[in-house]
Amino acid sequence: MLRAFAIAALFFLLPLAAQESKPVPGNRAESSALSWRDRYELGPGDVINFSLFGRPELDRPGFRIAPDGTISYLQAQNVNVAGLTLDEARIEIEKALQGHFKAPRVIITPEEIGSKRFTILGKVVRKGVVTLERPITLVEAIANAGGIETGLFERRTVELADYDRSFLSRRGEQLPINFRKLFQDGDMSQNLEIEPNDFIYIASTISNDYYVLGAVTTPGVQGMTPDASVVSAITRRGGFTDRAWTDRVLVVRGSFSEPETHVVSLRDILAAKESDFKLQPKDIVYIADRPWAQAEDILKLALAAFATSATSTWVNVNVDPILTNP
């Protein structure tokens, strides 16, 4: 049951590891950057109705746009309408019918919205891919998902969300939302409206792990031990890759909205010029594959790597494998 939206979640997060490309003026990429409230675009999963003016016998209701973004009506076969408005799609269908009808006037009406979706995972009651049937905000999205999961601690019911490590990503970028201010202080300036393909991840407060990411042999989550340090963390994850830049390591601590960064010199540690850097639960240890001078140079990459790793870890723990050994 969880497999479909888990796979979708990973696809939503793929752009996090790459730099977002700029749209070229005049093409569909530029229009897709607009809010769906300003420009509603068709996409796979949408269901539309067709009519041909003056020919009621050619009415065709309930056509679902195919996964490749195409749709067919009469002699207009496999017309790509993904990213087009209803009016733009009508023009494309009319062009395809011109060789078969004199001045065809096509009427397209929407029946079901299926292409505008977002994903929500983590410590909410109902995880999944959600259809955007109407404009909603971040608070509404979490409320519609059943709210934050709770548990018992010292006979008290407590929320299990780590607001400092929760995030919302859009088109490969983490948005600067302070979840703690939103849900604990009631700061509605943090309550953004949800857009199609948004990815919401509510992190767990009961985790006592840290992450070793970037140019190491096996990047990922690592269980916390009393002796956890930068050197031991890298060793436990298999050491550096051939592309690793080993002079400096970035350690990110605290909330995503106000991250605390520590630049650790491995060269000085290995030369016994300074002590190894002790880690704390939920630290992010990031090893870059290129030289850098300031923490700000790679902070964005470190947080993006965490987003991808945290989601992959959640999927591995909560979703049964798609393929199993016979």
TrEMBL record:
<feature type="signal peptide">
    <location>
        <begin position="1"/>
        <end position="17"/>
    </location>
</feature>
<keyword id="KW-0762">Sugar transport</keyword>
<keyword id="KW-0564">Palmitate</keyword>
<keyword id="KW-0626">Porin</keyword>
<keyword id="KW-0813">Transport</keyword>
<feature type="domain" description="Polysaccharide export protein N-terminal">
    <location>
        <begin position="38"/>
        <end position="108"/>
    </location>
</feature>
<dbReference type="Pfam" id="PF22461">
    <property type="entry name" value="SLBB_2"/>
</dbReference>
<dbReference type="InterPro" id="IPR003715">
    <property type="entry name" value="Poly_export_N"/>
</dbReference>
<keyword id="KW-1134">Transmembrane beta strand</keyword>
<keyword id="KW-0998">Cell outer membrane</keyword>
<keyword id="KW-0732">Signal</keyword>
<comment type="similarity">
    <text>Belongs to the BexD/CtrA/VexA family.</text>
</comment>
<feature type="domain" description="SLBB">
    <location>
        <begin position="210"/>
        <end position="287"/>
    </location>
</feature>
<dbReference type="InterPro" id="IPR049712">
    <property type="entry name" value="Poly_export"/>
</dbReference>
<dbReference type="Pfam" id="PF02563">
    <property type="entry name" value="Poly_export"/>
</dbReference>
<keyword id="KW-0449">Lipoprotein</keyword>
<keyword id="KW-0406">Ion transport</keyword>
<keyword id="KW-0625">Polysaccharide transport</keyword>
<keyword id="KW-0472">Membrane</keyword>
<feature type="domain" description="SLBB">
    <location>
        <begin position="116"/>
        <end position="202"/>
    </location>
</feature>
<protein>
    <recommendedName>
        <fullName>Polysaccharide export protein</fullName>
    </recommendedName>
</protein>
<keyword id="KW-0812">Transmembrane</keyword>
<dbReference type="InterPro" id="IPR054765">
    <property type="entry name" value="SLBB_dom"/>
</dbReference>
